[in-house]
TrEMBL record:
Native source species: Hippolais icterina (icterine warbler)
Biological classification of the source: Eukaryota, Metazoa, Chordata, Craniata, Vertebrata
Classification via Pfam families: Beta-prop_TYW4, LCM
Family matches, as SUPFAM superfamilies: Galactose oxidase, central domain, S-adenosyl-L-methionine-dependent methyltransferases
Name of the protein: tRNA wybutosine-synthesizing protein 4
GO MF, one example: tRNA methyltransferase activity
Length: 670
């Protein structure tokens, strides 16, 4: 547990070095310097913003009072005191920091040895006595185990903590490492002994969904189990906990809500453009698994730092589920590393033969961008897999994520777009050619040919997280390329009609209300047109709109499809159409109480029903984002291939094997 403070200080220091947070003291306190990944930077940014937001609100509300104090529990190598002092915000506030004795001693030594730090605490500061490892006029550093409540109380009293003045308690990922009986006792003790007090908590939530299971496993491996989660698994339970332990007011938000509601739009945009970034799913999942809580009692005026500055339409309560869809593993497809990947694409190239290309996954025991293709074929009711090494003239073109593959005939498919790294330009087009007379198990040879792009077609294809849909217009075959993103544009809202024989862009008139730009949406062919659903919009907010690009005599028309109840906004899902029903599979949404399963939209009536996926027969967490899926109409089954991602600092999760979802019961009941 003591080790977590050091690694979090290094991550905060890395975020500060890249401009996410303004804090020149972190590098002095963190000791070692390491550059973390952009996803980690964002995670520590939102944590720092939440804590700062609440602390500064407390100081603002109490600025007219003669004296206040802040008690930071499990403070580690945090720079809070130095930052506040440097900003001139501690005129009448004393900061007390508590951590394990050896952490407090290390920090005291650091402060004494660094003029930049010791000068801020003042000349009178120096070594305290016993558990007080460092003592200044407005800063006390105490070495004591938080779970020994009577000892903590004695040392705080000795250090001069005053029960009668307004006090802010801060516990930033601290209480969850304690046994619940001890953390509950600490919460209750603070409420009982301090008539005017506020309590700020930042920690994890939602242990049982797929991301939560990966998160818990990570902390168990570090030998720092998260104790709060079993008893207080969600924000509502944490709120009840504080209200039941003597606090009179308590508000709580998960970090998706905090980011949207409490961070000004211009600051959101500043953060989003600091470095190339393309891990939206993991960022939003990380944010739905952490919360900030502000509890208070006896404060006049009342302390409410978590009031949204903007109102965002929220789905009240959990998403209602109409039923469940059973999931089962495919017996013969387990243990095949090439099927463990995400950001790939799978396409049916002929009945019962599926080609999977690209993505990031596992090859030769390493995590890497995937070069090899996997061909799945069904024989006598069983699926089998064959690995195919494509014949590629330039290896870079084969290793791409977030591309599309469209099958144009039984010997030809077209790869459009995709990326290598998010900072590089999107990739162009490739022909995939397979022999016409390939055996029943599918092609054992796929030749790949680069398409030399005409300048006009370049704008159409140098993108990723887009959609490419087959369609016909006046008897001619086209691919409709829509949305996505590029290295320069975080969201694209344009579209192109690619005439497939010669791959040139054709101008076709489109009227009607233009959908807002999006990426990571779904697109399906339907009745000569294209259905677009969901996606991530310009402000990195999930969208819940469904549009039909409908064929008219002289061109096409955008038409919005109203769904009821309204479709829960989502992105990174897959979609299929079957007999007038649009099926959306998985994805990411902001409803932390459940994960998206299968949603069925009746395209005639607009009726929208959500079904949970029953995973009781799976022994591992099923992450349904960045996956691919193929609908098998005869069996009324969906084959889900791959999926997962880089789960914040908790490690990469790849769904270990393909899964069959049986839809027969829900397609009949409709």
């Amino acid at each position: 547990v003591q080790g977590t403070g050091g690694s979090s200080a290094v991550s905060k220091g890395s975020a500060a070095a890249r401009g996410y947070i303004q804090d020149r003291f972190l590098r002095l306190l963190a000791g070692r310097r390491r550059r973390r990944a952009p996803l980690i930077h964002r995670g520590y940014y939102i944590r720092a913003r939440a804590v700062d937001h609440c602390v500064q609100d407390f100081l603002l509300k109490t600025q007219s009072l003669p004296r206040t104090q802040i008690l930071s529990l499990g403070a580690g190598f945090d720079s809070l005191y130095f930052r506040l002092k440097d900003m001139g915000l501690l005129h009448h506030t004393v900061v007390y920091e508590v951590d394990f004795p050896n952490v407090a001693r290390q920090k005291a030594t650091l402060i004494k040895g660094m003029k930049e730090l010791s000068a801020l605490v003042g000349d009178t500061a120096g070594e305290g006595l016993g558990a007080i490892t460092f003592s200044g006029e407005d800063y006390k550093l105490l070495g004591v185990d938080l779970s020994e409540l009577s000892e903590l109380e004695r040392i705080l009293e000795e250090a001069g903590l005053n029960n009668e003045i307004p006090t802010l308690f801060i516990a930033e990922v601290v209480l969850t490492y304690m046994e619940n009986t001890r953390s509950d006792a600490l919460i209750q003790w603070a409420a009982e002994h301090f008539p005017q007090a506020c309590f700020l908590v930042y920690e994890q939530v939602h242990p049982e969904d797929p991301f939560g299971r990966v998160m818990q496993q990570h902390f168990r491996q570090l030998n720092t189990a998260l104790h709060s989660l079993a008893q207080y698994p969600d924000c509502e339970a944490q709120q009840r906990r504080f209200l039941g332990k003597g606090w009179t007011e308590c508000s709580v938000m998960d970090m998706n809500e905090f980011f949207t509601c409490c961070i000004p739009e211009d600051e959101q945009q500043r953060m989003q453009t600091l470095e190339p970034f393309d891990e939206y799913e993991e960022w939003h999942l990380k944010c739905s698994h952490y919360f900030v809580l502000a509890a208070s009692k006896g404060m006049e005026p009342s302390w409410t730092p978590l009031l949204p500055s903007v109102t965002v339409p929220r789905h009240a309560g959990p998403v209602g589920m109409a039923g469940s869809v059973p999931a089962a593993v495919c017996a013969r497809l387990s243990g095949i590393p090439g099927l463990r990947r995400y950001g790939h694409h799978s396409v049916l190239i002929k009945p019962n033969v599926i080609l999977t290309t690209g993505g990031f996954g596992e090859e030769d025991g390493q995590h890497c961008r995937m070069r090899n293709f996997q061909v799945l074929s069904k024989h006598a009711g069983c699926w089998e897999a064959v690995c195919v090494t494509p014949n590629i003239p330039d290896k870079r073109w084969g290793e791409r994520l977030y591309h599309t593959v469209s099958c144009l005939s039984d010997t030809l498919a077209l790869v459009v777009g995709g990326r290598a790294s998010p900072s590089s330009a999107g990739l162009g087009m490739l022909w995939l050619k397979f022999p016409k007379t390939c055996n029943a198990s599918g092609p054992d040879d796929v030749s790949v040919e680069l398409v030399s792009l005409q300048p006009a077609a370049e704008a159409a294809v140098l993108r990723w997280r887009h959609s490419t849909t087959e369609m016909t217009f006046k008897g001619e075959q086209y691919l409709f390329v829509y949305g996505g993103r590029s290295a320069l544009e975080p969201v694209l809202g344009d579209w192109h009609f690619l005439h497939t024989p010669e791959l040139c862009c054709t101008a076709i008139a489109v009227e009607g209300p233009v959908p807002e730009g999006r990426h990571s949406h779904s697109a399906c062919s339907w009745e000569g047109g294209v259905l677009i659903a969901g996606g991530l919009g310009a402000a990195e907010q999930p969208l819940g709109s469904v549009f039909l690009l409908r064929e008219l005599e002289r061109g096409f028309q955008w038409q919005k499809i109203e769904t009821h109840p309204p479709l829960v906004p989502r992105y990174s899902h897959t979609a299929h159409v079957h007999e007038g029903k649009l099926l959306l599979v998985g994805g990411v949404w902001f409803h932390a109480s459940s994960v998206p399963g299968v949603t069925v939209i009746d395209l005639m009536t607009g009726l929208c029903l959500d079904y949970v996926i029953n995973v009781e027969h799976l022994e591992w967490p099923l992450m349904l984002h960045n996956h691919s899926s193929v609908f098998l109409p005869n069996e009324k089954e969906l084959l889900v291939i791959g999926g997962g991602g880089n789960c914040f600092s908790f490690g990469t999760h790849l769904n270990p094997e393909p899964v069959l979802l049986s839809l027969s019961s829900i397609l009949i009941s409709h």
